[in-house]
Amino acid sequence: MGSTPKTARDWALEHLRTLDWTDGAPSTVDAVLLTVSELVTNAHIHARTSAQLVMTWDGRCLHVAVHDASGELPTTRPPSAQRPGGRGMFLVDALADEWETRPCPDGKTVIACFRPPTVGVSRS
Description:
Layout: E1 2-3, H1 5-18, H2 21-24, H3 26-45, E2 51-57, E3 62-68, H4 88-95, E4 98-104, E5 107-114
Helix pairs in contact: 1-3, 3-4
């Protein structure tokens, strides 16, 4: 789905509801939504392209993938008083169980993995 940050969060929330995560894993839902917002925002601001969001549940991990058309890979930078921003990937690193970037011929995809608590979470 091509999206703005708000559209991406709304779309992601609807899909998380189908997994029963909104009731069974609300803190994981919050982490996913914040990560979706950050990655889509990064695509628009830093990559200066649209973002395509794909979420895949494999029974163990929810993979949140955001693709953009820039080949420049994201990096974690120490915060600085001289420049705004720069904390986004630190945030993703803190929220996701793991994350990675995959270069593609037409840009890159950033993938964050989330493993919810096992109690009260749908495995379908």
